[in-house]
Amino acid sequence: MLAREVSTGAIAYSRCYARPNEDIEPDADDQMLPHVGDLTRFMQVVGAQPAHLVGHSWGAFICLLTAIRHPQLVRSLVLGEAPVLTLFTSVPPRPPELLRLLVRRPRTALAIVGFGARTHLPAQKAFRRGDDEGALQRMSHGVLGRDAYERLPEERKQQARENLNTLRAQVLGAGFPPLSDDDVRGVTAPTLLMTGARSPAYPLRLADRLQELLPNAERVEIAGASHLMHEENAVAVNQTILGFLARHASQTVGSM
Question: What kind of fold does domain 2-90+165-255 have according to CATH?
């Protein structure tokens, strides 16, 4: 989602391959940088730049990359649990990287290893043997938490099934683009980091590092919610975003 001004409302779009758009072709790769290009072109075509960008999960990472590559297009950022794994390791992680991370940031290393062992690798194996439902459950349990996934209504789970080709492409594909500490430090736009109070350790440790690196960041924990915070506690999420945008409505490119 992106917004020009708080007073003019918001312009929302569904990124390529995301429901309700047509799903990606089976066995294709869904890389992140083409989505950055889509977002920047969309902003320019509709005249919504510089914008206050609001993104969640993959969308949050796309918004962050947009701010890194095209800072002139961004007034502020709202990032909901961006999966910035490549701040710490390559994808897939190499053992020496994990060992160094274990020494420097043991909690983060354990969270990444746990996510890989219990979620990402089992999901990859499930997709490769054709067990799409099993892969979806593995990823959902690891990202949302088992309880949060089980509480989802069947209609919501069906929506996820309708994007299984895209999930497969993300899990089996080339992974996230490289991301350095200096890349993130260079993002001076005001940034709101939102995390769920019930989210698993993995996204929380990634948010910790973003909070350390971003020079103009604040963080809010959404009560009673995990990764799908905008669905589990929509009132709190909306109030938090609107309050942040109201404080930065007049943010200009020259002051970023």
Answer: Rossmann fold (3.40.50)
